[in-house]
Amino acid sequence: MKITKICCIGAGYVGGPTMAVIAQKCPDIQVTVVDLNQERINSWNDENIDNIPIYEPGLGDIVAEARGRNLFFSTDVEKAIHEAQVIFISVNTPTKTYGSGKGMAADLKYIELCARQIARIAKDDKIVVEKSTLPVRTAEAIKSILDNTGNGVQFQILSNPEFLAEGTAVEDLIAPDRVLIGGDNHTEEGRKAIDALVNVYANWVPKDKILTTNVWSSELSKLTANAFLAQRVSSINAMSELCERTGANVNEVAKAIGMDSRIGSKFLKASVGFGGSCFQKDILNLVYISKSFGLHQVADYWEQVIIMNDHQKRRFANNIVQTLYNTVADKKIAFLGWAFKKDTNDTRESSAIYIADDLINEQAKIAVFDPKVPENQVFLDLNYLETRSSEKNRKNVEVYENAYEACQGAHAIAVVTEWDEFIGYDWQKIYDNMQKPAFVFDGRNLLDGNKLKAIGFVYRAIGS
Ligand code: UDX
Ligand code: UDX
Question: CA-CA to 437 of 20 to 30 Å: which in 215, 248, 260, 265?
Answer without folding.
Answer: 248
